[in-house]
Amino acid sequence: MTHVHAFIAVDRLLQDLANCSLQFGGKVILLGGDFRQVLPVVLKGSRPLTVASCLKKHNLWSKFIKLNLIKNMRAPETERKFSNWLLEIGEGKSGDNVMLPDIYYPSEQNPIKQLYGDLNLSTVMPEELKGRAILAVTNDASIDINNQVLVCLPGETVVYEAVDDIVSDDSNDRLTFPVEFLNSLTPTGMPPYKLNLKPGCIIMLLRNLAPTEGLCNGTRLIVTKLQRNIIEAKRIGSVNGETYFIPRIPLNPSDSNMPFKFKRKQFPVRLAYSITINKAHGQTFKKICLMLINPVLGHGQLYVGFSRFKSFDSVTVVAPSRKIVNCVYQEVLND
């Protein structure tokens, strides 16, 4: 979900451009969204700060005409029970804990076996995997699962090592934070220092490379060729099957909590067999495994995780028990 500061900036910009003091310069603004979903991420933010980052808590919200959508377009009419159950989760009607239906909680609690148990990963084709994903709560859990899946896939692994460097004029910083330490870091939104890939593997972009071509942050692609300084890939869902060339670029982590700044020159991609729930926002899969070994951390995460597919038989869950945590901020849902 977009931070309220972005809407304020657009409002002021349009007022300046149109030389008009009306909201958004008197222009018609069309927005779409679901406040049951994940809220804007506020680094180290408390619940009040996170809620305050939402457009609904700003006076701009009162200027909009609200139209409510009532039909779940992902779920067919035959899955009305699933749609109602999903709404109960999104609105917190089930309380802080949700009891999973038996169909969601199989005896096999291995996420890779749950999702790919019907396939032979050693001979599988990329197209058979593109509609599946393991959704994790944390970035570290997602990285670990991706590496496990890659080992099972056919082909030879190609390792791309990044170039890390401290961004500082103080020579002491290079002594305090040596390159070996930087290599060990994988901040959220950054590719790893050692990027392990195979031809045919599924990757996700971590930066906007060519928005007009559909190459945006979060776009999933299938690798077609791995060269020394270029990755060739095809976008999943592309009609014309066009091949795109992904270069190495300098990247800076967005985590401002670090006591130093550093840059990493690496391909702006990561494996995408497993992604975080937040990163899955806006995507639809044919089959998923929701890994809830760690409980959800914020408003709407469980709702987003369970709304990435179309029916009850499209998901399984890995969790310590059938009783799982749900987090809903009622102050956001109340208009």
Automatic annotation (TrEMBL):
The keyword Nucleotide-binding applies. Residues 180-226 form the DNA helicase Pif1-like 2B domain. Its cofactor is Mg(2+). GO terms for biological process: DNA recombination; DNA repair; telomere maintenance. It is an enzyme of class 5 (isomerase). Residues 1-95 form the DNA helicase Pif1-like DEAD-box helicase domain. Pfam families: PIF1, Pif1_2B_dom. Belongs to the helicase family. This is ATP-dependent DNA helicase. It comes from Araneus ventricosus (Orbweaver spider).
